[in-house]
Amino acid sequence: MSRVMAVDWGTRRIGVAVSDETWSLARTLPTLNVTSAKEAARLLLTLVQEHDVAILVVGNPVHMSGREGSSAQHVHQLVDKLQPRLPGVRFVLWDERLSSHQAQEILRERQEKIRGAPGRLDQVAAALLLQSFLDSEPAR
Questions:
Q1: How many domains does the chain have?
Q2: Which of 58, 104, 110, 137 gets the most CB atoms within 10 Å of its CB?
Q3: CATH number where 64 lies
Q4: pLDDT in tens for each of the 140 residues of the chain?
């Protein structure tokens, strides 16, 4: 059965989360540590295929005003690289405003240390993006 995957893109680390088969719950996957956009695309292609992903939700880093900044350009470039190689996958750019802040709050509440656990914040942010998307979608 197909799943939904979310990506919280960063130039060095990429948070990734995947849904269950019912598209109800998000769970984190290990953070991807990358050195280039090419490597990021390659790793994401592998994950999409491994998890039989039907929808790839990509966090769109917009400013509080709603305008896209320079980071959004990198996200669009990543999507442009992936789309031709994943013709059966639906791509959704998802507003990620405040997702990192929410992830920090969750980790603080759980008393998890962010320092010393690089990538954990990215994982939680990706799960929040995905859960937000799943909660907004009508039953499939």
A1: 1
A2: 58
A3: 3.30.420.140
A4: 799 999 998 878 899 999 999 999 999 999 999 998 889 999 999 999 999 999 999 988 765 666 777 777 888 888 999 999 999 999 999 887 655 655 556 556 656 565 555 666 788 889 999 998 999 976 55
Q: What distance in Å separates the CA atoms of residue 138 and residue 37, rounded to the nearest whole number? A: 33
- CA gyration radius, the chain: 14
44 in helix, strand or coil?
helix
Supply the range of the domain harboring residue 27. Answer: 3-136
Residues 6+ apart with CB under 8 A from 99: 8, 59, 125, 128, 129
| Phi, psi angle pair for 7, to nearest 5° | -130, 125
Query: Residue 78's closest CA among 3, 4, 10, 2?
Result: 10
